[in-house]
TrEMBL record, chains A, B:
Cofactor binding mode and count: Binds 1 zinc ion per subunit.
Protein name stated in the entry: 5-methylthioadenosine/S-adenosylhomocysteine deaminase
Swiss-Prot/TrEMBL cofactor(s): Zn(2+)
Keyword Metal-binding: yes
InterPro entries according to UniProt: Amidohydro-rel, Deaminase_MtaD/DadD, Metal-dep_hydrolase_composite, Metal_Hydrolase, MTA/SAH_deaminase
Amino acid sequence: MSKKIMTNGTIMTMDAENRLIKKGAIAFEDGQITFVGETPSDLSSYDEIIDVDGDYVLPGLVNTHGHASMSLLRGYADDLPLQQWLEEKMWPIEATYTKDHAKWGTNLSIIEMLRTGTTTFVDMYDNMDEVAMAVDAAGIRARLCRGMIGFGSEELRQSKLEEASSFARNWNNQANGRITTMMSPHSPYTCAPDFIEKIVSKAVELNLPIHIHMSETQSEVELNVREYGERPVKHLEKLGMFEQPTLVAHAVHVEDWEMDILAKYDVKVSNNIISNLKLASGIAPLPALLSKGITVSLGTDSSASNNNLDLFEELKQVAMLYKGVHNDATLIPAEKALQMATIHGAEAIWLDDQIGSLEVGKQADFIVMNTKQAFYQPAHNPISHLVYSGSGRDVKDVYVQGKQVVKNGECVTVDEERVIFEVNRLSQKF
Amino acid sequence: MSKKIMTNGTIMTMDAENRLIKKGAIAFEDGQITFVGETPSDLSSYDEIIDVDGDYVLPGLVNTHGHASMSLLRGYADDLPLQQWLEEKMWPIEATYTKDHAKWGTNLSIIEMLRTGTTTFVDMYDNMDEVAMAVDAAGIRARLCRGMIGFGSEELRQSKLEEASSFARNWNNQANGRITTMMSPHSPYTCAPDFIEKIVSKAVELNLPIHIHMSETQSEVELNVREYGERPVKHLEKLGMFEQPTLVAHAVHVEDWEMDILAKYDVKVSNNIISNLKLASGIAPLPALLSKGITVSLGTDSSASNNNLDLFEELKQVAMLYKGVHNDATLIPAEKALQMATIHGAEAIWLDDQIGSLEVGKQADFIVMNTKQAFYQPAHNPISHLVYSGSGRDVKDVYVQGKQVVKNGECVTVDEERVIFEVNRLSQKF
């Protein structure tokens, strides 16, 4: 593979010093970053030189919670509370889902994510082979798991566990390392304790992390207390889950002492701020979670509850909401929000040795923003402009493992027109 | 002027029945709408037929509070509380402002607004002749006022009042009716009661409405009580302001009985949800204001506290935030949010006989969204997609008074490159 270098960019490294390099360059070869710094005067050793003329260059964003197949349900049901939305709208229609739905729904989601600068996403759903094949073909990076809902017969649960285990085993470190896997009980309120214990054992056996929904709504926490005598955090701790690396999605309704437990085990959190607002689930105690030293990343959840997968919206929302709610304009400054969308996202899925910042030796997963627009003027403060004034729609070029997957705002690895045709064909039958 | 018709659009009329017309058409001539309905089979009477092939067509958005000149200060100071931000950052730098700053800052703001589908905006600032000339040239619509801060000598106040009055008189109904004016004391905490009374008298004399900042922060309300023995609403009522049509910006800290006063006088409100969050001013009681029957519209405030002028962000934010804050996913549904950004915006500035909805006889101010993108698929519910998944960046074409001002995402009436050059030239001196 040839030696390439991007020159004269505004480089947001997101490294340990949060270096911002004006007139900076990033070089890459064989999918890895080989240089980050000021643009060198001698460029003769490079095969391809791309001058980005001041545009922002930053690590691809990491979306740590979602259900890509569900994009077929975007706008199918809005303005309803979570349980009604799930039980009356989502679950009945999802029961009719086939591999075809998973395939085209996932492709639609991948287009949205790549177009808006997400280069790595977490997915928890079923028909995961379809999801993995779509990830492989599109050239995006993903940490995938077959989410297990424990309702129904013992045979059904056993077959789900086998399916989830074989998926996790077969696809881990595939697609040139772009796909990694996890084991995933859906939630404490949909999986009985013994089923969760079996899944945890399997995760230990396969040496894989765990991903689970936890404490998204107040009613789910109350149900947990009624059924098992404990709030979800203590309940999962007792079931041994947190001995294994765990990423919990939501963590909206967690008390101070529960955060101490999460911190003790280094449990990672995916904050899904927009989905939580839209479903009226509540507002997670983000400043407190951060002050405990917990790694908090950002997730979109599915486009059925968001309703898009543009992580730039989460980026701005975390930097806005807590200021207003806590009457403190200094909370979650722009730089912290951007860390949550990049390096903390990588840490939350145990891939921070490979992605999440622009550093020599890491994977060449990065994005270029078109900043020659009014929204980015005057050029006072690039990180402020990116977080407070930018949009995922401004992402121009996207590279994963050094390969260009978005060019001038168009996906080059997925046939957008075909995908739009297929999702409308499928959704007309709902 | 020729007879034009847009055909096969998804028309969001925002009329009294909130009609959504699939395969709809809108015709216009001499700047006015002459037809709205299903696409006619016979189009032979039209000089120009534009087939938008399913794209959304809706009224241009109305941004009811802002300070266009301040876009030069985007990203100049973030993550600070309002008073510190104003007193230590904004006011000192604004004191150095010249007509040149007003001219180029306003042009930058107009580009942002037109590009993201705002066709009418409210502006309160100084050097307003520059603002009005920029509005005239760009072909946008605006309701403008010279905001008066009452500090300093009596002579200074008098000269401001004269300047504000002559501006309001000279520019009202100019630019082919696209410019209207108001009279504007900055706020109760920057204008003494007698100065406010003088401004109100002048508004009565000129038969113009009043625009004022009110109850944006808790500390400003407390100051009002200390200084004048009343909270701002009662204080302004006593000064006779509400006898004249009034638009208040913010109304964040208003109690139930204060809302009754606002409702009694039909005082209009501009909700500035994003600016209020970012400056940690608080969260306005929007559901209560609406339940009192008060007209609530949306404003961006300036890009120094937002940090952009894309009203689609306010549109989504009002439909999200209150659900999460009040634990009620049915609050401010998508359609209500869109009304706030369109027809309620027009009502808030007393122009609803001319703009805010697509109806025969109204002005041809409308926008076309590029919905042939993943974010708008599958085609379940256009208004949901627009509010929850859309972005101002998806606005493709913009018309004001039947004249195209944005074409394929580019402003055709303002030289974007020149404006970007000038704002950076000016801001380098800060």
